[in-house]
Amino acid sequence: MPEPVVPSAAFANRLNEHIGREFAASQQYVAVAVYYDSETLPRLAAFFYAQALEERNHAMMMVRYLLDSGAEAVVSGAAAPRTRFDDVVAPVDLALEQEREVSGQIRALAVLAREEGDLQSEQFLQWFLKEQVEEVAGMSDLLRVVGRARDNPLLAEEYLARERSGDPARDPTAPPAAGGCI
């Protein structure tokens, strides 16, 4: 069996840092889901519980990549997530900002991989770049809907029931995750 091509040290270090941010994003989405659950908004809660799992799986995909390529995978701790919100719009606004930040971080990782001549790592990130476009677009839509439904959040619940019903199909182009997640 051929030796794996190890990512550049700079890339592996930055990806390990990003793994921590993915886990932190997962925790933040759990906190948002709990907030919506406490407000008896089950569709918004379910949406964010699913988002939490998705972020966790992104971290696990990155862990799997590092392990498969012979690099050390490091799982760091995360700061406590925000748990209190002024209204039903604030959590989605926070989520959109978080998705925009992650998009910038993934782009920076891709640039670093390219600068390091780390073609495998650059290729690995292509799926995440595409995924972030979808995440920002979807969260932007949800923010607009929840903003319009600020005084009657049940309208946002109806939107999610109508537009986001059912389990999303697994993307066959997604990288594999450590531990068989997804």
Summary tags:
Ferritin; single chain; 5 helices; mainly alpha; 182 residues
Overall description:
The chain is an all-alpha fold. The protein has a single domain (9-165), classed as Ferritin, core subunit, four-helix bundle (Ferritin, Up-down Bundle), CATH 1.20.1260. The protein is 68% helix and 0% strand. It contains five helices and no strands. Helix 1 runs antiparallel to helix 3 (90-115), helix 2 (42-68) packs across helix 5 and helix 3 (90-115) packs antiparallel against helix 4. It is elongated and about 60 Å long.
CATH A-level architecture:
Up-down Bundle
* Spatial shape: elongated
Query: Which topology does CATH recognise?
Result: Ferritin
The count of strands amounts to 0
The total of helices stands at 5
Largest sheet: none
Overall mean confidence score, pLDDT = 93
Count of the domains: 1
